[in-house]
Every structure is written in structure tokens, then in C-alpha cells.
Write a structure and sequence with these properties.
Two copies of one chain form a homodimer.
Chain A: E1 3-4, E2 15-24, E3 31-38, E4 44-50, H1 51-61, H2 71-81, E5 85-95, E6 98-107, E7 110-116, H3 118-128, E8 132-135, H4 136-144, E9 155-156
Parallel strand pairs in A: 4-9, 5-8
Antiparallel strand pairs in A: 1-2, 2-3, 2-8, 3-4, 5-6, 6-7
Helix pairs in contact in A: 1-3, 2-3
């Protein structure tokens, strides 16, 4: 199992590297599903996301080029234009069936964390080929949640709310 | 008429400030329309954009808040997180019926230009409350274009191509 510890969140915690395992796009519904699976383990969980983010993740995963920058290309171009780099993205929280994530940027030896929906963070991670992590307690929560309606249906699509 | 000249594009050129004049969203079609109109004049032209960008522009124009950052909020958060600011956006080109734009960022007294589709640039401009400009020759082209199929139908939605 690939684990990684770093500062800024006292006292310490563990994040687990995940792979994008599945992108399930159904053009007929607003909500799409991606599945993240442990890189070095069997645990996996789905995240429900919006259609345009799912299409972006799929396109970035397949490294399809578009004539002009798409929205997540714009995020990449801003990061690079400002001389920063994306180190990783982390799914940091699950609250009220909603996932939260962060982009972890580095610039001049300084770390900058930027809040993001997981869908955008994963779209940018796949585009910029950086690792996807999840905080271990989020993974524990999402795997063990005993509620009848599974937390993996937490919408990552605020447009639909 | 508000005009503005700046360096980096020799020898000199003029950009004209525009206002977001209309957002026309039709949920039944993939292509939506926004209209930019001269801030201090009568010239106006439409840009065809994608649905998710149109929804984003509309939401940002109405200053509607979402529980989590949407994709253009992510762009704003990256810009601010990296201690830069957005000065303005500029529609810089019209080629083969397709518009091109740039975000003009400033960081530590240095200007950084980032390529963008006009739809994303306008969504970010409306969100961050910065002026929208168009290069005068683009405005001249789009107003005077004598082709039977008007250039205002240049798609700003590469996903649909």
C-alpha cells in the first residue's frame, strides 16, 4: 500500500494512493459515476459526478486533444503560467454524503492547497498525470458506512442541487 | 468608447471594453449563445458556447453561491492561491469561425497571459468581476463579415465537435 504523510494537518494522518478505476457515463442522466480504487489494495468506492466533468475526465484519461483549451486545460495553463506545479490531489473529506478534495500545488518551495470538487480535482490530476490520494479516514468511512443509502451516491454535482 | 493599449503585441493595437449583454440558454440544444456588447457603443456580437459554460456564466453573473467550488471557482482559487490577480480577459482572435481568448494575469508586477476559450474566460471574468475586452480587429471582423453563415455561430464548444 502506498501511504504518504505530510505536514499542515496536525498531528498526522495517512493518505492512500488511488487509481481511477472506472468512468461510467450515461448520457441520459445528469449524474455519472467514477470509481477510485486503491493503487496497492482492493478497496474501491464510487463518486457521483456531473456529466461535463465525467466527459472531461474521460477525455483527459484518453489524452484526447481538443483544438482549444477546455476548462481543465485552463486550470493547468494557469498553474503552469504562474510557475507552479501540481503535486497531487487529495480527497480530503466526506460530509453529509458529499466529497471534498484539494489540489496540492507547489511554488517556490511553498505548498498551496486549493479547494476543489473531487470531479474537477480528478480531471486535473488525470490531465496533468499526478497521483490521486484519499485520506484514510475518508476511505474507512466510505467503505464501512452502514447506511442503507450508500455514501457513494454523494453528489459531486452542485449544478443539479 | 473605452479603449486600452498595452505592450507585448507589437507594434500596438486597440482593445474595446465589452459587457455581457445577454445569456440565452436553451436546455434542449447543446449550443447556447451569449452576446457581448460594447460598453460605450452599440456594436454587439454573439458567441456560441456549451451548456455547462453558459450555466456557469449565468450563475456567476447572478452571483449565485454553491456549497462547493465549481470549475470556474477552482480557476479563481488557483489564481488567488498563487498570489496572482486577474486583470482582464480579452477575446483575441477569430479564426475559421472560432473565437480565442486570453486571461491576463498579474503576479509580482509581471503579466502572464493564459489561453482560454471565450466561454471560460467570460465565466471567470464575471465571477472575478474584471473587465471583458475584445481586440478591435476581431470586433471589426465579426461585425463586417459578409459570409452567408455568420461568424457568430463559431462554436465555442469543442466537446461537441
Amino acid at each position: 500500500m502506498t501511504v504518504y504523510d505530510w505536514g499542515s494537518h496536525p498531528p498526522e494522518f495517512t493518505v492512500i494512493q488511488m487509481e481511477l478505476n472506472k468512468i461510467i457515463i450515461s448520457e441520459n442522466t445528469a449524474q455519472q459515476v467514477i470509481v477510485l480504487k486503491e493503487s496497492a489494495g482492493a478497496r474501491a468506492f464510487p463518486i457521483v459526478i456531473g456529466l461535463s466533468e465525467a466527459i472531461a475526465i474521460d477525455r483527459n484519461f484518453k489524452a484526447q486533444k481538443t483544438p482549444r483549451p477546455m476548462t481543465h486545460d485552463l486550470v493547468e495553463n494557469v498553474i503552469k503560467g504562474l510557475d507552479a506545479r501540481l503535486e497531487r490531489i487529495v480527497v480530503t473529506d466526506l460530509k453529509d454524503r458529499t466529497f471534498y478534495a484539494k489540489l496540492i500545488l507547489r511554488r517556490n518551495g511553498k505548498t498551496v492547497e486549493v479547494d476543489s470538487r473531487p470531479s474537477d480535482a480528478i480531471a486535473v490530476a488525470v490531465l496533468m498525470k499526478v497521483p490521486i490520494y484519499v485520506e484514510e479516514r475518508v476511505l474507512d468511512d466510505v467503505i464501512s458506512d452502514p447506511s442503507p443509502e450508500p455514501p457513494d451516491l454523494a453528489p459531486d454535482e452542485d449544478e443539479e442541487e
